[in-house]
Every structure is written in structure tokens, then in C-alpha cells.
Amino acid sequence: MMSYKQNSMNDPAASLGGPVGAYPSKHVAPPASHSLPIVPQIFPPSHESALIDSFGRIHNNLRISVTDRCNLRCTYCMPEDVVFMDRGELLTFEEIARFVEVAAPLGIDKIRLTGGEPLMRREMPRLVCMLARIPGIRDIGLTTNGLLLADHAQALYDAGLRRINISLDTLNPERFRQVARRDGLDRVIEGILAAKRAGFEPIKINAVSMRGITEEEVVPLGRFARTHGLEMRFIEYMPIGADHWERNKVYFAHEILEQLEKEIAPLVPVEDYDPRAPAMEFRYTDGGGRVGIIASVSRPFCASCNRVRLTADGKLRNCLFALDEVDVKQLLREHAGTALIADVIRKNVMAKWEGHEINTARFIKPIRTMHAIGG
Ligand code: SAM
Ligand code: SF4
User: Fold this and answer.
1) Of the bound ligands, which one is closest to the alpha carbon of residue 115?
2) CA separation (Å) from 36 to 39, 41, 55, 57, 303?
3) How far is the CA of 176 from the centre of ligand 2 (A)?
4) Of all atoms in ligand 2, which is nearest to the CA of residue 116?
5) pTM over the 0.70 mark
6) Beta bridge partner(s), residue 139
7) Measured between alpha carbons, how far is 80 from 199 in angstroms, rounded to an integer?
8) Closest ligand, as measured to the CA of 210
9) Residue 294: in which H helix or E strand, if any?
10) What's the pLDDT tens digit per position in 277-294?
11) For residue 143, how far is its CA from the centre of ligand 1 (angstroms)?
């Protein structure tokens, strides 16, 4: 049942494989009277101070990078000869918590901790505890490469973390070394099993899909996830790493879905689909679990983007691909007032452009690579 190819308004993936959306130049400001109904107002702001951009998108989701360090060197993410930030550059946990205390009353209620590798930072359960106590924060997630997870899964769970994404591109040790430029597959698997034992549910497995590199991994990973009660999430390879990116290196969402349906079981879009989530979610019709696809290249989700990012060195970015960022570390270190920091956040969100331009000749790759932004 290839239902993701049907042309239905309710089918989140109906246009997979179709032409990609083209965005107007990010350098052109939207008209003042812009009335594009880009975001369905399904989550109206509960208060006047909600973080809304000039396209009407409401922002409730904050990604916090806690370090740019990593124990892997994934080719799609960072260069091998990377120079990491000085530790003194990193926001302290107290500074991160202060930022969140200011952002929460503006409507931020969902946080994802990331990096670099977030578990390279000591005492992460303490940060989870600090953030979980902030009024208004209802959801804290973590994205990790899993290498250190076996040692920390239980403490993170006990601290209040419930949502975890573990990155795993392949089940083949050679391929793992090729992609991550380091060994570690066994430790990632141990980390996944430890997360299960600790009680995390669901556990999502992120895999970057690259033509000719991880293409062959789609079906083994799909089967692995079904066997262990995990949710696979395939992410189209984006131009945000150190390597030269080309469109033909992306293994596209519709190709992934075709492989899974051919080799495993038919998929249909889930009924409880969240239109603001980046992943299009499908379920196997035989009851064998779910698959998410993040089709950032073939089906950009900028029109419903609700995310802002705080880098490990305290820069606020309104888009993964933003070329500008605002320094909030200095404000935090100078103990600036809540109103001033809130104003900086609001202005940063308001200045957000309509969408990334990966699919246009205008695309400009940010200077920071993924590990230094926070994925
Ligand atoms: N180190 C952690 C990890 O790997 O899960 C967290 C940080 S990592 C930057 C977050 C996510 O970004 C990972 O799932 C990774 O696979 C993904 N990612 C990194 N570079 C990417 C790229 N060029 N295209 C698509 N996804 C990418
Ligand atoms: Fe490290 Fe994650 Fe980047 Fe891989 S994707 S190099 S694990 S930060």
C-alpha cells in the first residue's frame, strides 16, 4: 500500500518525490502587510509575548548545544582537524538555565539538548534537573551519538529526561568507521540497550541518508529498529558539514520509503501526525512500529518551523542555516535584566527568514558546521 504517493490533503508526505519548494530570497524583507497563512494557527499563543516571526510562525522549541566537542568525527558533520572552542567560551549550566528562565515565559516549552556530543559534557543529569524545574518547560529531549550513553542513561532518566534520540547510521562496523572516522558501533548498541533498560520510550534512532554510503543501511536499520522496539528516523543529508555537499549525494525520502516498503512492510502516514514536527511519521501496516523521515532537502519544513537554537558559546540562531547570530553570552555574563534578554530573543525570532535556500542557487552555507551549531 504505497499511500505516501497518493495526493491527499491529509497525507503529510503526499508530495514526496515532487518538485521542491523554492523560497524567495532571504535578503528580501517580507511586505509589512504579509498575510501568508504559512503556519496553521493550531497552537495560538497563550499570551501576548509569544515568540512570533514576521511570517506568523510561533516558536516554542529551543535546541541547546552544550558543547562542540565530540568523540566521533562524522564526515557529514565536522572536519577531522577540528579546533574546538575553549572551555571558558561555553555557557555554564547556570547561564543556560538563566536563558531558559527568560525564554520560557515567551512561550518556549520544549527543549532539546545537543552538541557536539552532549554527553562529553560532565554532569548532564544536573543540567536536566535544573531545566526540568523551570516553570513552563514541559518537554526535555537529548540527541546523542550513544557512545557514552551506557554509563549515563539511568542517571539521565532519573533526572527527568524522557525523550532520547540516538544517532546510528549503520550496523556495519567498517561502514561506521568510514562515516564516523572512529570506531564505536558496539558502544552505541550498548547505549541503546541501556536506554531501553532505563525506561526511555520511545527511543528514536537518527540515521543520515547519503547516496552510496548509507543507502544500503536503510533496510538493516529498519529491521533492527522493529526488532528492538525503536523508531527509525532517516534524515536527508544536508549541506551543513565540512565536506563538499552535492544534491546527488542525498538519498531522498521517497527512495528510503520505497526501500522499506519493498523489503519490510507497507507504510502509511500516522493518524496523530504533528504538522509542526520536522519528521513525517509513518507506521507499518503490520503493526511493526513507526518510521520518521526528515526530508529537509526534498520537502523542507521551514513553513512550520518553530525552532531557535542556542550554541554552546552562547549565540542565538533563528535557523540552522542562519548566517547571522546574536551573542547572548555577554548579556548573561553581565547579568543583564530579563527584559533586555527577552527583547533580544524576540527580535532574533522576528528577523527569521522565510526558509533555507538549499534548493536554490542563492544558498550560502553557514561558516559554522553542524557540530558547532547543534543539530
Ligand atoms: N552528537 C550527537 C549525535 O550525533 O546525535 C548530537 C549532535 S548531532 C550534530 C545531531 C544530529 O545531526 C545527528 O543525528 C546527526 O546525524 C545529524 N547531522 C549532523 N550533520 C548532518 C548533516 N550534514 N545532514 C543531516 N543530519 C546531520
Ligand atoms: Fe559528533 Fe554527532 Fe557530529 Fe557525529 S553527528 S561528529 S557524533 S556531533
Assistant:
1) 1
2) 8, 12, 7, 11, 10
3) 12
4) 8
5) yes
6) 110
7) 35
8) 1
9) strand 290-294
10) 889 999 999 999 999 999
11) 8
